[in-house]
Amino acid sequence: MKKIERAILQVVAATGISSVVVQLITIREFLAQFQGNEFIIALILFCWLTLGGIGTLLARQVAQRMRASVNALGILSFLLATLAPVQILAIRFLRDFFFIHGTSVGFYQTLAYIGLLITPYCLLLGYVLPYSLFVLRHEIPDYPGARIYITDNLGDVTGGALFAFILVFWATPLQAVLIANIPLMVATYLLYMPRPTPGAIILAVAATGAMAFGIVWEKQSLVPSEGRLVHYQESRYGRISVHQDQEQYTLFKDNLPVFSSQNIAAAEEAIHYPLSQLLKARRTLLISGEGGIMAEIEKYHPETVDYVELDPKIAAVQFQFNLMQPIDGLNVIHEDGRAHLKQTTARYDAIILNLPEPDTFQVNRFYTDQFFRLAQTHLNPEGILSFSMQGFDNYLAEAQRQKLSSLHNTAARHFKHILLLPGQRIFFLCRNAPIDWDIPALLEHRNIHTRYIRGYYYGNVTRERVDQLNALMDPQAPINRDESPRLIKIMFSQWFDKFATSPVAFMLVIATVSLVYVARMTRAEYVLFSTGFMTMGSEILVIFAFQIFFGYIYFQIGLIVTVFLAGLLPGAWIGQKQIRHLKATLITADGILISLTAVLIIMVMTLGDRLPAPSYLIFGFLVSLACGFQFPVALQLEGAGAGAVTRTFSADLIGAAGGTLITSVVLIPHLGILWAAAALIALKLSSLVILGGGHADNES
Predict the structure, then answer these.
(1) What is the pLDDT of residue 700?
(2) If DSSP codes are grouped into helix, strand and coil, which group holds residue 552?
(3) What distance, in Å, lies between the first and last C-alpha atoms of the chain?
(4) Same structural domain for residues 173 and 89?
(5) Residue 496 covered by a domain
């Protein structure tokens, strides 16, 4: 009997290792497909948890109709390992099948695409965990469900650590899938020992073949539909690829073109608009760049050019394909641009941002009140800050006007003069000295030759258009801050407006289904539902806070997920010992969760971006500790039968799914980090009220 128990627990732990690595790689793959949009993380986690909860409920229905068996568990586990590489390849190959190549995708289409591709794996994953318990209970009728929960969590933490500390540095995605699934295939094969059946051997070979095929097709799966792939590598910060189309090379990061070898107009605008305003441009800071930008800045004979590029692999590729040319005085700094400004004592004549639209928290952090204050303190008295937004042709849409107005008002808190120059890109020039709009005249006076500006500037930029654009700015538009990212709310609204859709209908459906589901719960199930909601809501808060304050979530996502899993194991172990005063124990854990979130609010309010990264990780660990502590207690309160196991697992998963979606799509964009955390506290207070209003404990 002990041998069967050990073999099944090995499968459970190995499933945890495999599933977490596959989840993290799936997140990275979708981030690469959708240009690093953090909302994708929330949509993936929402679908993953919801489908897992549905799979758990299905396991109970099936177990009631047929006997759970070791043989069936082995088949399901081999199938789970086989689906992992298939899912990753499907994400890569099918995007252009469902959507027109090169086009942006709306919220509902994105959600449907994610849900469709991960449904088989997630349903099966949610099914396998309780099914493992049913197999054990067929052999050992009173086998404790909490032990399965703890074993699964041990595998989850191991998988998260494996990814965060090893695989993200040394393995490509499909290599990581193979490595993470080896323990699962070995543990599953051992289920059949000492006499493996022919079916087990065939399934093991099929799973191995699927993963080997994935590795062979790793690079082929990334070949573009136009041009040819001349370079590909995975970085801890994202996916880097270079496409060649005739004589032009384009560098892509997460499928988003960031550098081109023949974009002369963009390079000239980025450099000459700000630097033409200066008598001398001795020292310039470039945060990211553009192809050909160094050739333009060299015309000003600078003494020093600090070029900040977070990812050293991107910088190396830029020079390798001549997208960036070395010039005298060039210093390449491999650091986050905002972190560099916080640490350096240097003062610059110009700070030039070459960044995309602030449609992610990672980019938005360069357009907030805190950043503009930081930039102003590192400029010389007549220094200039420059950045750009998407332009318009004839009509400035209201959402775009509000975005530009918010930026204008935020920058104006720290610079006396703000000038917006219209065109395909709207350039912001921010300075404490007067700004001259007539760029060609300034360049001619300095005898600096240009191709695009000299020939086309007056056709796109006139005094009348400049005055008209600047007059359209709304002085009442809200300030964009780190903890209250107004631009993200506007960009999120633009995402829906672009496709003539609204999130309201979707959220109403989710709210209605949730209310029906909650109405049928017991008090203990509601505690786990609200705890799952708060735990995943807190995880989303930490993920977005990392983007806002540190700016490198692609690298840190594995570490954050691992930390939020790590506390579940000791928490569940401690909770398993609490066999008396069950309701009082749950109330205590709820109080701890509320207190932790309140402390986080106070720390963010008082310290902001000065709060060190480990603080968020410690917070995540303590939240998961309280969550893990509650699960076995609630399970014991429910009676610990087969029905109780599936109901509590499902309540936890579905609550977590709701917390992921509501926090990311509603609370943070509309309320900001601090009020989103306050809303999570309010939900947990409702759990306290429900627990406190119940009858006496089940004290056994």
Answers:
(1) 39
(2) coil
(3) 27
(4) yes
(5) no
Q: Is residue 490 part of a domain?
A: no
How far is Cα of residue 398 from the mean position of the Cα atoms in its chain? 28
Residues 130 and 178 in one domain: yes
Tokens 């952090």 -> residue: 365
Kindly write down the DSSP assignment for every residue of 594-660, as one continuous string.
Answer: HHHHHHHHHHHHHHGGGS-HHHHHHHHHHHHHHHHHHHHHHHHHHT-SHHHHHHHHHHHHHHHHHHH
Q: Give dist(CA 443, CA 146) in Å, integer.
A: 73
The verdict on 434 and 565 lying in the same domain is no
Whether 200 and 289 map to the same domain: the answer is no
- Give strand pairing partners of 252: 241, 257
DSSP output for 379-403: EEEEEEEEEEEE--SS---HHHHHH
Domain count, the chain: 4
Are 66 and 91 in the same domain?
yes
Spatial CA neighbour of 340 closest among 317, 359, 366: 366
User: Tokens 């000065």 sit at which residue?
Assistant: 610
Rounded to whole angstroms, the Cα distance separating 586 from 530 reads 12
Residues facing residue 460 across a β-bridge: none
Sequence-separated (6 or more) residues with CB below 8 Å from residue 592: 622, 626
Whole-prediction pTM: 0.81
The confidence score (pLDDT) of residue 194 equals: 72
Cα–Cα distances (Å) from 398 to 113, 250, 469, 481, 496, in that order, read: 30, 33, 13, 21, 14
Q: Which two tokens stand for residue 594?
A: 């509320």
| Cβ atoms within 10 Å, residue 644 | 19
**Higher-scoring residue by pLDDT: 237, 682:** 682
Per-residue DSSP letter, 234: E
Q: pLDDT-derived band of residue 699, with 50, 70 and 90 as boundaries?
A: very low
Beta bridge partners of 431: 384, 417
Tens digits of residue pLDDT in 582-597: 677 777 888 888 898 8
Q: Write phi, then psi, for 522 (nearest 5 degrees).
A: -85, 170
536-560 confidence digits (pLDDT tens): 888 888 887 877 777 665 566 677 8
Phi, psi dihedral angles at 326 (to 5 degrees): -70, 140
Nearest to 488 by CA among 346, 318, 669, 658: 669
Query: Do 1 and 82 lie in a common domain?
Result: yes
388 phi, psi to nearest 5 deg = -140, 155
Rounded distance, CA 691 to CA 390, Å? 52
Paired tokens of 117:
């591709």
- Assigned domain for 495 exists: no
Residue 489 included in any domain: no
Q: Report the alpha-carbon distance of residue 545 to residue 566 in Å, rounded.
A: 20
How far apart are the C-alpha atoms of 63 and 132, rounded to whole Å?
11
Decide: 282 and 306 in contact? Cβ < 8 Å: no
- The answer on 595 and 447 residing in a single domain is no
Pair (98, 189) in one structural domain: yes
Q: Are 185 and 208 in contact (CB under 8 A)?
A: yes
Output the six-digit token pair for 149.
């929960």
CB of 474 closer than 8 Å to CB of 386 = no
By residue range, what is the domain housing residue 547?
Answer: 503-700
- Predicted confidence (pLDDT) per residue in 276-331, tens digit: 999 888 999 999 887 788 989 999 999 999 999 888 898 889 888 888 888 999 99
CATH code where residue 572 lies: 1.20.1250.20
Name every residue whose Cβ is closer than 8 Å to that of residue 15 and which is 6 or more positions away in sequence: 77, 80, 125, 128, 129, 132, 152, 155, 184
